[in-house]
Amino acid sequence: MTLVDYETVDDGRIARIWLNRPETHNAQTRTLLVELDEAFNRAEADDTVRVVILGARGKNFSAGHDLGSEAAVAERQPGPGQHPSFTGNGATRDPIVEKMYLQEWHYYFSNTCRWRDLRKITIAQVQGNAISAGLMLIWACDLIVAADNARFSDVVGVRLGMPGVEYYAHPWEFGPRKAKELLLTGDSLDADEAHRLGMVSKIFPADELADKTLEFARRIAELPTMAALLIKDSVNAASDAMGFSEALRHGFHIHQLGHAHWSAHNDSKAPIALPPEVPDWRTAKATDLARRDQP
């Protein structure tokens, strides 16, 4: 079974890409992300495709990065960016932070930035929970439509002591103060509030989400391809001129600093302060996160 499904409808004008790991609430392994990149590239290379819809099978859009499944753990061993251990002051240390930096830049950051600039109009179709790295996927899309049961959250702050996920678009999507609130508390937004903030374009009944999203995509597919791309490029360029792309890069580096902080805590076996209701991040799985705020 593939982790990402690809199909075209409407005489090939609309491509539908589906995350297909419902048993884990579409938790993202690296294999899934590679297949997703291949699907986006396939749609981009097809001149007939005008609009791409990114959806997900099952109850939830995505529980974020897969942190604990056997498949996910195996993928990270050894992974790219493996270098000999560093030696200094008579001591040898394994460069965990450096390895993680290179891996996350490849799998999580540069991929997402590239999908944001895909030469097609993209629509994220969201039901249930979109948690942490689930937000990265939908934020890379040009438009977001949501089921009336959708919820959006980034819980890496309260779970991992991190400033947010690798693609740090929070202040742009939520607004600065709301971003601080959500990251400091781990709270979630429902579809209505996300719509009021301007993050979500349309809200549809959950049982009509797929059909209504397709209708929405058809309206956009009627626009001449060049006009659609010029609109996308113009808006993206305006965002970049206001500092969006540079803020993303800075946010990624700060995210890696968060990893370095936690690595130091683990090396020294220093206590990790977490709220009592939050399980230890070292044993947490993405499927645990998906059980929060179930609609």
Automatic annotation (TrEMBL):
Gene3D superfamilies: 2-enoyl-CoA Hydratase, Chain A, domain 1 (3.90.226.10). The keyword Cell cycle does not apply. Keywords: Lipid metabolism. It comes from the Bacteria. InterPro entries: ClpP/crotonase-like_dom_sf, Enoyl-CoA_hydra/iso. This is Enoyl-CoA hydratase. The lineage of its organism: Bacteria, Bacillati, Actinomycetota, Actinomycetes, Mycobacteriales.
